[in-house]
Amino acid sequence: MKFNVIIEKDEDDYFFAIVPGLPGCHTQAKSLDELIKRVKEAIELYIEVEGPAAVQSSGTFMGVQVVEI
Length: 69
Hints:
This protein is of the alpha+beta class. It has one helix and three strands. It is globular and about 40 Å long. The protein starts with 5 loop residues before the first strand and ends in a 19-residue tail after the last helix.
């Protein structure tokens, strides 16, 4: 299975990952390598607990656009 993952970095240099296709599935880490490991674990646990039927289609990733106001 493939999942879109949104990754952001905060002002304290922590990385955050959100999985749009799995509501409530998110994690954080100090390094990007550790974040990738943790998000894979979070996805596996989510599916184990909620079951494969809980997976929602998050569509085809098209990109990110920064809008300044």
